[in-house]
Design goal:
By secondary structure, this protein is of the alpha/beta class. It is 29% helix and 13% strand. The strands form four sheets. The chain has a six-stranded mixed beta sheet, sandwiched between helices. α12 packs across α13.
């Protein structure tokens, strides 16, 4: 196994490696030195863009044994990538190693001919015992897994990454409902503008074209989504929709929950996702469609459960935390879509869609009037710190863990989650 200190060096410098490494210059050297097999290199080359290949190469390198790190440093130096080699050597000044001899082709062993004692050919007997030369034991040590391709089990189940190098990467629509009409009896969502500003800045930094729409009624929400679906996304790699509003629980057969317009009429999340599926938005076929829902999934409040003292202590939030909860609507109106023929609920489950919810279906979602919602505050920070190195699903798990540690009024909890129908890993473009 690779030494732990070498793993930490690679991990702490992963963003630099992904940004600057030229994998194409390393393949011959890594193959010759036995760090990777040809099948593994072919797999890395098929992972996508240069950045994707660099990311995959660094991940695979950590699995290639104790000699892999110093041999990798040698390859960097030999291919002129001195700045990266120097950065890595700062934490490993003693990582020097003689190159492994090139792998020789395996040839069949040749048996020596039998030797007989000198005698007249006419007097040889059929009972003569053949004499073979003595074989001296080999003093060459057995090759390590890195040195011999015969001992390597080639991984064939690695997940590919989505292409995410277009500029701009894609469109991002943010619908921010703050002020609700008095007759609908929904409270204003103080603090939501803070969430909106954070996410607008974050997705611009991730190279998305961001459009913000504020205080939309139900029909205006549908119109904005329809307009987004009619855009030409052929030059883009991704599309993002962010909903900041009150929410409720509705009957569904795919994605739970619904979000409210400022007129008190809701739009099911299932219907929101349908606008961008492969049938209704052909230019997004095969591309990731991401939906982030900051709204309650219902009216139930989670008081949590006791944990052992070893668990991290919960973070107790402010007394002015509010919820985005509305009582569950009846099933008779929850999926009424007769006025939207391009958003039918009978379509099969679409691929390449991820819906991230701020809270577990049926439960409230907490929002601080001064600092914004727990979910968006954490999501924004995790994206800022980890987008250069981690895929989206991994980052959402980080969000889940951190939000679950919070406590509203010292009592109530919140658990985000997602419905993931992505087929590949998704890495956002690193900030420059």
């Amino acid at each position: 196994m690779m030494e732990e200190r070498h793993k930490k060096i690679l991990q702490s410098n992963r963003s630099n490696l992904v940004r600057d490494l030229d994998p194409s210059k390393l393949y011959d050297g890594l193959l010759e030195k036995g760090v990777f097999t040809q099948d593994m290199i072919d797999e890395i080359q098929s992972s996508g863009t240069r950045r994707d290949q660099a990311r995959q190469l660094v991940r695979d390198l950590e699995t290639r044994g104790s000699r892999a790190f110093p041999l990798f440093l040698q390859c960097l130096t030999e291919t002129g990538q001195h700045s990266l080699a120097e950065i890595l050597q700062i934490g490993a000044p003693s990582a020097h190693l003689q190159p492994v001899a090139p792998i020789q082709a395996v040839r069949p062993a040749v048996q020596p001919l039998p030797l007989s004692p000198p005698m007249d050919a006419d007097k040889q007997s059929k009972y003569t015992v053949p004499v073979y030369p003595l074989q001296k034991p080999s003093t060459t040590p057995s090759p390590s897994p890195v040195e011999s391709i015969k001992q390597v089990r080639v991984r064939r189940d690695s997940i590919q990454s989505y292409k995410m190098d277009a500029s701009p990467c894609g469109h991002c629509l943010i619908i921010n409902n703050v002020e609700f009409e008095p007759e609908c009896e929904l409270s204003n969502r103080n603090g939501s503008n803070i969430d909106c500003d954070k996410l607008e800045r974050r997705f611009k930094a991730l190279n998305f074209t961001v459009e913000v729409k504020t205080n939309l009624k139900q029909r205006q929400i549908k119109h904005a989504l329809s307009a987004l679906s009619k855009k030409d996304h052929s030059e883009c790699d991704c599309c993002v929709v962010i909903m900041l509003s009150h929410g409720t629980e509705v009957s569904h057969n795919r994605f739970p929950g619904a979000v409210y317009g400022v007129d008190g009429q809701h739009v099911p999340v299932q219907q929101i996702t349908n606008y961008l599926n492969g049938q209704h938005c052909p230019s997004l076929q095969g591309k990731p469609k991401l939906f982030f829902i900051q709204a309650c999934g219902g009216g139930e409040r989670d008081t949590g459960f006791e944990v052992s003292p070893d668990e991290a202590p919960p973070s107790i939030r402010g007394e002015d935390d509010q919820t985005d909860a509305i009582p569950m609507s009846s099933s008779s109106d929850s999926l009424s879509m007769s006025d939207e023929p391009d958003a039918r609920a009978t379509l099969p489950t679409p691929s390449d869609i991820l819906v991230s919810y701020s809270t577990f279906p049926g439960y409230v979602s907490w929002r601080d009037t001064q600092s914004g919602s727990w979910y968006v505050e954490t999501l924004d920070r995790i994206l800022e710190e980890n987008a250069p190195t981690d895929d989206l699903v991994t980052m959402l798990m980080m969000v889940n863990n951190e939000v679950s540690q919070n406590s509203a009024k010292g009592l109530y909890k919140q658990m985000p989650g997602s419905f993931n129908f992505l087929r590949k890993l998704l890495y956002f473009q690193s900030q420059t």
